[in-house]
Structures are given as C-alpha cells and as structure tokens.
C-alpha cells in the first residue's frame, strides 16, 4: 500500500452525495441471516422453558413452587446428601447424584433418622423423605433405598435451594462424635461424611455470605451510586464543553491533573504504609494471608500499600517519560483536538448519538440472551441411573422412573436410583442445539459489530462534512448527522455488514478457542497448551488489526461512498503516507483522551472513596453504613469510566475522521488558489502550510 497522490477534483467538497449502493451481496446475506436468526428465535421460544434455569427441579424433573404443579406449595429444593454435589459428575450431568425433593421449608434443626424414628419428631422428619414414603422398612433398607436422608442439619435457603448453615457445623461434629449405634455403622458413616462435607462447604457458604453482604450494600447505597454516576456524566459533559473553548489549556490542565492525582495516590499510599509500621499483624505477607472474602483485611497490611505505591509510581514515571519524548507530537495532537472541539460544537447532537448505539446494542444483547436461554431449556427431561460407580454396571444409563423399580437394572444395582439428570433429547432438533447456539453467538457478534459500524460511519460522515466545508459553518449541511445516518443505511448497509462479518468470524473463532482451552486444562499436554496460547494470541492481534482497519475503512466509506475493500485500501494508503509519525500522532491523541478519562474517573473515584469511608466530616452522617465500602466505590469507578468513554468515543471518532481528512487534504491540495487547503489555520501554522491568495487581475 504505497501512498500515491490523489487526483485533484475541483468539485470535491466533502462527503459525496451522488453515490450508489456498495457490497450488495453482503447486504443480501445479512438480511437472509437476520431472517434465519428470527426463525431460530421463534423455534427456541416455541420449545424452550426458561423456568428450567430459574426454578429448581426435584429428582423427577418437576418444578418446585410453581403454580399448577403438585409442588406448588413446596418452593425449596432439599438435597439428601449435599456433599455429593461436589462430585465431578455434577459438572458433566449438571445434577447432583443424590435424591432431591421439594419441601415447604428448609430444615431448622439437627436430627438423625435413628433418633427421629419412633419419636414424636418423626412426623417432622417425614416431610424430608421421598413423597409417599411409608414407614414399613428397616433402617438399613430406608437408607440404602434413599427413601429418607440419614441426617438433617439446620439449613438456609439460597436461590430456592437448601444449604447447610455455617453455625450448624460445630453442632453436627459434636453430636457425630458423641453418638454411637448398635447397628448404625452405615448411619455413622453417612453422618461422618456429611460432617466432612460441611467443613468443605465452608468456602461455598462464605461466598454465599459475601454475595448477600454485597447485595445488602447495593440496597443501601444505590441512591448514592446513581448520584456518583450523574456527577461523572456532568463532569464529562462539562469537560467536552470546556474543550470547545479552551482545548489547549484543558489538555495541559488534564495532563497536570492526572500527574497530580497519581502523585497524591503515591503520597496517600506512603502515609498508610508508614502509619501501619509497628502495628501487630501488619507485616504479614499477601502470600501467607491468602484469599480473604473480607477485602478490608488487606488494607491492614503494609505490603498492600507498598504494592499500590509501586504500581502508581510506575504509571507516573511512564506518563512523564511519554510527555517528555512526545511533546512535539502533543502540539499537533492538541491542534487536532481543538479542531475536533469545533466540529463537535457545530454538530452538538453527535454527543447524543452514543445513546442510539447503546439502545441498539441492548436490543442485540437482549435477543441473544433470551434466545440462548430458550435454546438451552428446549430439551426434554432425561432420567439416568445413579448408583455406585464401582459396583453398578448400568450406572449412568437412561431409565424411566415409572418402570425402574420393577426393571432388571434395579435388581443389578439394588442401591441405585432412577432420577432426573438433565434436559436433553434424541431428535434432530435436539442434536442441532449446539449448532444453533453457535449460530446464535455468531449472529450476536455480527449484529453488534454492525451497530458499532453504523455509529462510526454516521459520526465520520457528519465530521467529514465539517472538515471539507471551506467556509465554516456556512458550508455545513443543515442536518449533517441525520444526513450521514441516512446515507449509511441507504447505500452502505452491505459494506458495513462486510466489515462486521469479518470481525464476527474472528470473534467466534476466539470464543471456540477459549472453549477448547477450558476443555484442555485438565489434560497435562504442554504442547497443546503452548499451541493454544499461540493461537489465542494470534487471533487477539488479528482482531485488534481488523478493528483498526474497519474503523478507517468506515471513514473512507462515509466520505467517498466506495465499497469496503476499496475504502480499506485507500485508508491504509493514506496512513502509509510519508507524513512523519502518522501512527505516533494517532496514538498520542488516544493517549490524551485516556488521560481525560482517567482524570474524570480518578476525581469521581476519590470523591466516592472519601464519602463512603466517612472521611468527609461535613456529611459523615449522610453516608450509609456498609459491609464493604469498596462495593459502591468500584461500581462508581466502573460506571464513571463507561460514561466518560461514551462521551470521549465521539471525540475519538471525530479526531480519527479529521486526521484522515487532514491526510487527504495534504494529498489532494497544494495551497494554491485553485487547490486551497481545507485544514484550520492552526494546523497550517504548525505544518508551515499556507493558502496562496488569488492573483489580482
């Protein structure tokens, strides 16, 4: 792609209006794919049942707590032996290999089957046995056949499932150690297994408590989180408005403020590090402490603050070095940002266009997610034999719960059960479900990339109209954003679909590589892991390159109305222009916008930190009490970054468009009266370019 000068066209005044449709074949393919996607959605919605994901099912595949079912008044699922849920079989079959029943309430006391049998507590115990249980068997037979659980422990419901309560572990252990039975060897074994499993479940239960505490923090702090996000939006909008009038000053203020914010962070980390000197337990290393669900523990370690201080110091040094070595490029980048500020000022409605993109992306995500759920729940209930893996020859085979008690399989495996395993099927539709899920994911990538491409072409066309207007704003069209949007949909749907298709193919390949990588983690094959890592790295780089190529191709499509391949070739030709440091200059503007995002996010994050940690004395009583103050702080920081990114993405597209137009201007024109430069006076001054006045007659 060697850059060759464009032929001068005296009629060229910006985005071409007399253009034709491009890449029509890709447009047809996209329409056919959308029709197929709608058909897949209709089929999925016809066969699927999302209740299978949301609500628990017992060993017979019947819903718990659903109206119109026999378990309508039993909303909770009870596991006979929840320890078996940690079996690898669960990962393969998505069902615990233990009897499960729907119950009205989770057990609230510790009770063994032997203690309950023959006592007044047996009526309470019976509600946790299989439906229709008759007390006409011996203890060993009941436990062998899985008619009743060997022991009950106090449990609490989570997602309509009964999980052992943490405080019950010690009581179970004490009773288990203190109780013996004449004929209870099997029972004692089950109790011991349950106790050990309860110990192992500590991590899961702690995670449950962590999730509940985080949820509580959100319920009491959501109002202040919204206020923090509104502040981030106001700051972003104010920053954009100030850039319109004070672009140069704002950029330098932004650079200085980011350096100061990082400097304050380093100072704060050092003060916390010095304050913890001599405190008991503050010298414990992060490795020795391990993972803790209460993240506040780490803030009492000197090593934590030392790590923060080192990270911030490295960022500070990198930014300062970049500013020193790229100072000349920064001046040109500031001139481009000033020009972009004027362009955004003349096309202010462009700041609202990200809302359109966000709305369309939400539609894509909602359709993809609902279709995926309906596809995954459109299977039939499959029942399998669950028995001892070592002694049962038919373990894992399909069965029917109605005929299993009298079948040969039940005689081959006396202790086995025929219970619900998962949802599946043997029909052609069920065999095609995996392919339909892949198609669903592929169409999501394609449509999402198409929506992003539409936004890029729309903004590029509007900002190109500004650049190529010789007398601004008199030569600007009345509605540049709407005109660009209509041109993109009317003429270039096929080109946008072509670029989005290429990117979607690479993305679906990356998803499949991630899936294969997860499957290969269990295998100890170093060559396969190395090859997988190389492939993932290559396709990651390929996706980044295609994104860069597409973005610049869309700008050329918006200006000239050429097809995707021609636009991509012309864009690369311009970027390979001998004009010095083209790539560096482009990245400098990205770097400056990144500093702007960091300034907004850092300011809002520091404000949120001081507020939620009750360090602002004036409003100390206003901040809500929290279990983990980092929950709302992280939420505000992430949300602020997304808001700032939405505003700055418009600026980024404006700068990229003006940059390509600027390079095209240098190719087409020479500053003569017949071929004047369209660039701003600031850019002409920086590059020592001038427009010659027409000769007087």
UniProtKB/TrEMBL annotation:
The chain crosses the membrane at residues 22-45, 222-243, 249-267, 305-325, 345-369, 441-469, 489-513, 553-572, 592-614, 626-648. This is Choline transporter-like protein. Choline transporter. The keyword Nucleotide-binding does not apply. Belongs to the CTL (choline transporter-like) family. The keyword Transferase does not apply. It comes from Myotis davidii (David's myotis). Keywords: Antiport, Cell membrane, Glycoprotein, Membrane, Mitochondrion, Mitochondrion outer membrane, Phosphoprotein, Transmembrane, Transmembrane helix, Transport. Interacts with COCH. It is a multi-pass membrane protein. It catalyses: ethanolamine(out) + n H(+)(in) = ethanolamine(in) + n H(+)(out); choline(out) + n H(+)(in) = choline(in) + n H(+)(out). It comes from the Eukaryota.
């Amino acid at each position: 792609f060697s850059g060759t000068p464009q032929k001068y066209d005296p009629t060229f005044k910006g985005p071409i209006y007399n253009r034709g449709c491009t890449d029509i074949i890709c447009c047809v393919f996209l329409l056919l794919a959308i029709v197929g996607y709608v058909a897949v959605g209709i089929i999925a919605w016809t066969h699927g049942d999302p209740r299978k994901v949301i609500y628990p099912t017992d060993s017979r595949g019947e819903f718990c707590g659903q109206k119109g079912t026999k378990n309508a008044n039993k909303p909770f699922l009870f596991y006979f032996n929840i320890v078996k849920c940690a079996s690898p079989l669960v990962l393969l079959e998505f069902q615990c290999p233990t009897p499960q029943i729907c119950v009205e309430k989770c057990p609230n006391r510790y009770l063994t089957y032997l203690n309950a049998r023959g006592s007044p507590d047996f009526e309470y115990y019976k509600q946790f046995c299989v439906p229709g249980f008759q007390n006409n068997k011996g203890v060993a037979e009941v436990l062998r056949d899985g008619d009743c659980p060997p022991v009950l422990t106090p449990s609490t419901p989570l997602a309509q499932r009964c999980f052992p309560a943490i405080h019950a572990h010690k009581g179970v252990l004490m009773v288990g150690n203190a109780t013996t039975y004449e004929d209870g060897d099997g029972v004692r074994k089950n109790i011991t297994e349950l106790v050990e499993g309860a110990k192992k479940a500590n991590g899961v239960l702690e995670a449950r408590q962590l999730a509940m505490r985080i949820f509580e923090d959100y319920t009491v702090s959501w109002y202040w989180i919204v206020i923090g996000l509104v502040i981030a939006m106001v700051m972003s909008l104010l920053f954009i408005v100030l850039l319109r009038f004070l672009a140069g000053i704002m950029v330098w203020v932004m650079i200085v403020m980011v350096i100061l914010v990082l400097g304050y962070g380093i100072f704060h980390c050092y003060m916390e590090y010095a304050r913890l000197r001599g405190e008991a337990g503050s010298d414990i290393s992060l490795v020795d402490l391990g993972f803790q669900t209460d993240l506040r523990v780490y803030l009492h370690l000197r090593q934590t603050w030392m790590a923060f201080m080192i990270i911030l110091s490295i960022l500070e040094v990198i930014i300062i070095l970049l500013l020193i070595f790229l100072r000349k490029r920064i001046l040109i980048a500031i001139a481009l940002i000033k020009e972009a500020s004027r362009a955004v000022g003349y096309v202010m409605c462009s700041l609202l266009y990200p809302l359109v993109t966000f709305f369309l992306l939400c539609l894509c995500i909602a359709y993809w997610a609902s279709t995926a759920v309906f596809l995954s729940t459109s299977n039939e209930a499959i029942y399998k034999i669950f028995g001892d893996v070592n002694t049962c020859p038919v373990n894992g085979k399909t069965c029917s719960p109605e005929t299993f008690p009298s079948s040969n399989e039940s005689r081959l495996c006396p202790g086995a059960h025929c219970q619900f395993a998962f949802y599946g099927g043997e029909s052609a539709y069920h065999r095609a479900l995996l392919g339909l899920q892949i198609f669903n994911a592929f169409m999501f990538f394609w449509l999402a990339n198409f929506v992003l491409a539409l936004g890029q072409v729309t903004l590029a066309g509007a900002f190109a109209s500004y650049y190529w207007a010789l007398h601004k704003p008199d030569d600007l069209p009345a509605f540049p954003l709407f005109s660009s949007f209509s041109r993109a949909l009317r003429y270039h749907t096929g080109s946008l679909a072509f670029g989005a298709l290429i990117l979607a193919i690479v993305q679906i390949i990356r998803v499949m590589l991630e899936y294969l990588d997860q499957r290969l983690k269990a295998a100890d094959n170093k060559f396969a892991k190395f090859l997988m890592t190389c492939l993932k790295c290559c396709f990651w780089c390929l996706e980044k390159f295609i994104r860069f190529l597409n973005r610049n191709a869309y700008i050329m499509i918006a200006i000239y109305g050429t097809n995707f391949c021609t636009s991509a070739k012309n864009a690369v030709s311009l970027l390979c222009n001998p004009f010095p440091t083209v790539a560096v200059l482009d990245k400098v503007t990205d770097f400056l916008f990144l500093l702007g995002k960091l300034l907004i996010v850092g300011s809002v994050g520091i404000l949120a930190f001081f507020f939620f940690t009750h360090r602002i004395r004036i409003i100390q009583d206003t901040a809500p009490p929290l279990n983990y103050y980092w929950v709302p702080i992280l939420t505000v920081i992430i949300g602020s970054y997304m808001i700032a990114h939405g505003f700055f993405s418009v600026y980024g597209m404006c700068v990229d468009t003006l940059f390509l137009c600027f390079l095209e201007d240098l190719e087409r024109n020479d500053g003569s009266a017949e071929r004047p430069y369209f660039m701003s006076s600031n850019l002409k001054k920086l590059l020592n370019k001038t427009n010659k006045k027409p000769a007087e007659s």
